[in-house]
Amino acid sequence: MHIDIDDISKEFGTTAALTPVSLSIPSGALVALLGPSGSGKTTLLRILGGLEFPTSGRVLFNGQDATGLTVQQRRAGFVFQSYALFRHMTVFDNIAYGLRARPRKERPPKAEIARRVNKLLELIQLPQIGDRYPSQLSGGQRQRVALARALAIEPRMMLLDEPFGALDAKVRKELRQGLRDIHDETGLTTIFVTHDQEEAMELADLVVVMSMGRIEQIGRPQDIREKPATEFVRDFITT
Amino acid sequence: MSDATIPQQGARANNPARFRRANDESPLARAILILLAVGGLGILVFAPLAAVFTEALKQGWAAAVASLGSRDAQSAIRLTLTITAIAVPLNAAFGIAAAWFITKFDFRGKAFLITLIDLPFSVSPVVAGLCIVLLFGANSALGGWLVASGYPIVFAIPGIVLATVFVTFPFVARELIPVMIEQGRAEEEAALTLGASGWRTFLTVTLPNIRWALLYGTLLCTARAMGEFGAVAVVSGKIRGQTATMPITIEMLYNEYLSVAAFSMAALLTGFALITLTLKTALELRHADQLAATRRH
């Protein structure tokens, strides 16, 4: 899905989290929102997912105004920073949650839900863990379950908030490839937030560098590396 | 302190391989602490409990049971159970609503609202009772109208329910607020992004996550609701057989030197409280695995 962000701004009380920003994301792209903490990248992601509403500006999905759509109507697969798995449910129930929450006439039958959940467990290469609880999983396994849970709703896009933030370096490298593979397989427009420039450069097709609620530069990783547009970008990618 | 270190040094000389762990107390300090804890518990908890039951059974089981079988006693027991059955679900609902509001939304005056929830803990129950009399008594405009319409609040069951609800209001909310703050909003947000409605999110995510705190708060609330005296004493009018709850009946019987009857009723009230506690422990033991799973991972 093609996403347009049209002059979006967001204020929390008197502090501006986003000064008007505009951004066009082509369908099927893997995009990184890169910036230090407080740069507004998570706010922008939450606005796309419908968890926050902009103070002004519009969001367009495939050219149609989606600004007023509720979080449920957006059908965005959201992966939270600490995964937010339902701790009282098994992995199977976590992944099935979105399908079971559908209105009765759109809800797949039980056997179909089980089939889809098992397929997703295979996609994330953890076919045996359906009966476990989130507390019995490692950090990397939780992240992959969160990914499967978000994919289960057949999302129109994937939004990931620091998807590798809570993991150690080795697991992080493995899962980066995992995310790339899943993106390539599903072809979903995917946007992830990160403060790690190496991660952004290595994984994304398109990197959006943000600072203080503004977009500093939009470009392919090598363009940003070779031709940083501002002093901030130069500093940020060399450190 | 020097007394405590001398035997320790002796022990070390005999067995140099044994060292004291950093958080170990000396044997003397340990003995004193245990003595204080056991002694305090014995004097403050076990002795009164034993005394209630001994006094009740002073003239044997038959006398105790007979006193509980009297019409007034039966009416008091029924009244207390009815009031509890009304007040506890109300407070569970209010408590969940208040905790939800406070922990899931940001708004001005939040700190003030939290203080307000604690108010019933700091205000004397007698004062609370008096406020209800002032507001709904026959001498007030509202109360006069209610009495004239045939719905008296004061000296009737609605007043007792109001007083009980007021006094036991904080129990559920106070248990839930810290748990819900600690759990944050992420799981609810996740449920919403997966397409669940607000109500479904509450039923399938919020409620299961707070169920143990809710149960604990409800049980405390139940125990306190059954035992409430001060506020109810003011609003009930203590009409025997009509508005006298168990605690009030106990006081009246005791003042009339009917000690077997008074203590039998007290023993029964204690029994109710012990049942709630046993229930809680049993549930905790039975669902230990879920309990572990729902704690922080």
Automatic annotation (TrEMBL), chain A:
SMART domains: AAA (SM00382)
GO biological process assignments: quaternary ammonium group transport
Keyword Endoplasmic reticulum: no
Gene Ontology terms: cellular component: ATP-binding cassette (ABC) transporter complex
UniProt keyword Transferase present: no
GO MF entries: ABC-type sulfate transporter activity; ATP binding; ATP hydrolysis activity
Annotated PROSITE patterns: ABC_TRANSPORTER_1, ABC_TRANSPORTER_2
Domain ABC transporter per the UniProt entry, residue ranges: 3-237
Keywords: ATP-binding, Nucleotide-binding, Sulfate transport, Translocase, Transport
PANTHER family: SPERMIDINE/PUTRESCINE IMPORT ATP-BINDING PROTEIN POTA, SPERMIDINE_PUTRESCINE IMPORT ATP-BINDING PROTEIN POTA
The protein's name: Sulfate ABC transporter ATP-binding protein
Protein source organism: Paracoccus caeni
Automatic annotation (TrEMBL), chain B:
Predominant location: membrane
Cellular component aspect of the GO annotation: plasma membrane
Domain (ABC transmembrane type-1) ranges: 77-278
Keywords: Membrane, Sulfate transport, Transmembrane, Transmembrane helix, Transport
Main function: Part of the ABC transporter complex CysAWTP (TC 3.A.1.6.1) involved in sulfate/thiosulfate import. Probably responsible for the translocation of the substrate across the membrane.
Complex formation: The complex is composed of two ATP-binding proteins (CysA), two transmembrane proteins (CysT and CysW) and a solute-binding protein (CysP).
UniProt name for this protein: Sulfate ABC transporter permease subunit CysW
Phylogenetic lineage: Bacteria, Pseudomonadati, Pseudomonadota, Alphaproteobacteria, Rhodobacterales
